[in-house]
Amino acid sequence: MPEYKAPLRDIKFVTEEVLDIYGHYAKLPGAEEATPDMVSAILEEGAKFAERVLSPLNRVGDQQGCQFNEGVVTTPEGFKEAYQQYVEGGWPSLSHPEEMGGQGLPDSLGMLVTEMISTANWSWGMYPGLSHGAMNTIEQHGTDEQKQTYLSKLVSGEWTGTMCLTEPHCGTDLGMLKTKAEPQEDGSYAISGTKIFISAGEHDMADNIVHIVLARLPDAPAGTKGISLFIVPKFNVDDAGEKADRNQVACGSIEHKMGIHGNATCVMNFDGAKGFLIGPPNRGLNCMFTFMNAARLGTAMQGLAHSEWALQNSVAYAKDRLQMRALSGAKAPEKAADPIIVHPDVRRMLLTQKAFAEGGRAMIHYCSMLVDSTKHGSKEEKEEAEELMSLLTPIAKAFLTETGFEAANQGLQVFGGHGFIAEWGMEQNVRDCRIAMLYEGTTGIQALDLLGRKVLMTQGATLRRFTKMVHKFCKEHKGDKRFKSYITALDKLNSEWGDVTMKIGMKAMRNKEEVGAASVDYLMFSGYVVLAYFWARMAVTAKTKLEEGTDEVGFYTAKLQTATFYYERILPRTKAHVEAMLSGADNLLAMEEDNFLFLNA
Q1: Alpha-carbon distance 440 to 257, whole Å?
Q2: 423 noted as active-site residue
Q3: What residue stretches are annotated with the Acyl-CoA oxidase/dehydrogenase middle domain (predicted)?
Q4: Tell me, what's the pLDDT at 32?
Q5: Catalytic residue among 115, 402, 440, 514
Q6: What is the pLDDT of residue 40?
Q7: Which residue among 121, 387, 561, 598 is the one 20 to 30 A from 483 at the CA level?
Q8: Under a CB-based contact definition with an 8 Å cutoff, are residues 29 and 376 in contact?
Q9: Distance (Å, rounded) from C-alpha 275 to C-alpha 296?
Q10: What is the pLDDT of residue 291?
Q11: Could you read off the pLDDT of 488-517 as tens digits, one per residue?
């Protein structure tokens, strides 16, 4: 049976030794409670919950799936009970304001717990995960009355939340949505329409579900400028803040999917359901980005989760599975054959998983610290954090989900034929993680957002904010021979990042299609460079620890060796992406549509 063990040592290495999370907390107002002892206790308890409660349910959720019966959705065996333990443990309230019943701890601390939950059981973790996005949206854009009515129950975990965007005829192009919102005399709105692909839209784990819904007012302008945002609860709420009668919103069906079977993906029908406007009229998409950006960082976490899960199980199997002898001679002569971990190609796959999991961990938790700063920093700190987040969010979401899928596939490959068999869990990992490259905006959409909106539309200002930071890091270590191989390569790629951006920008001035043609290669190039930056930081930390003297020689040596593997085996992929992105749009657009496929002789 597949197993999960929370990587607490690596989490502490990244957060404490590389990112200096306690120095970060010292600067945050209200983070006084996030002491090393407090954080350590939270991580230990979170690890127990993930390992002992959620991990054993991962395969159960895949095998049983969710059941649908006349609008009622039943989650897999053990899911509801696990959620009650989650609520009783106070986990939903960890990173939310004390005035709303939360514990007031930093978002980045909550993200550490989210990593463990996500890796142990992604399908289960989606239920509370979506609630955090709903909470953040109401917290930032809701009225005081809306906060009082909905936030306390969401923060406690008594209620859960969803985001309702997609409709049958429109996915990414939300300007086409048709769901209507008719004003009512009591100040509410009657919401009518159908939403699809709504994760956790209906279930039996909580007393109420608060839907955050995009819809159009009667006088709304066409396109995305005519979208408003509404709170639509499954059960209406009375004056005392308790659930009352059933609202006119129902689950019409659940999808039969490739993976994440334990999470209900619902068709939701709104038939004059009572809803309440959140934020200004016709500005719903702007407000919804609060939810979407949180969800995109959460989806980036899915890439990390599946990389880590694949790595842990692949290493355990590779140490135990006997096949052939090493080419240089027997490594385990007392056994019938050598364990497959001795073979170079198996090590290539394991090191690829390790590089993506541990590098992705540094990227994700750096971003979560930026989220802290956007909420609690000074004006200058908030501006810097928001600009860095705008650049890194599409990179983290798309790049880490692409590499997470690669790592999951490598995991299946390590197991050979056994990886294709359900009992080992590797094929489930592949199926579960495939969705991550699709929802919250596909890789192509994230790439257009990065190159078009975040880089070219700001004339490179957003990019320069990050590349200056990388340049400063390289300058600090440039004369140190210990880090020459990392710093030289990183410095060169950091400079090249600006150069290729300028070249694409110049081409796009003559033909706007050049942006779409270059965007995915540009994003992947960007992701490899960002990951190289974090691996260089980890290498510097590890080398310094080794020279200072440590009892953990193996741990820090492995960090240096993984960094070297990443720089020598993975980072050269950037060359192919540069060639592709600069090859232009003609090789994509020259072919006539009718010439893509010829079936008749």
Answers
A1: 17
A2: no
A3: 163-271
A4: 86
A5: 440
A6: 97
A7: 387
A8: yes
A9: 25
A10: 64
A11: 999 999 999 999 999 999 999 999 999 999
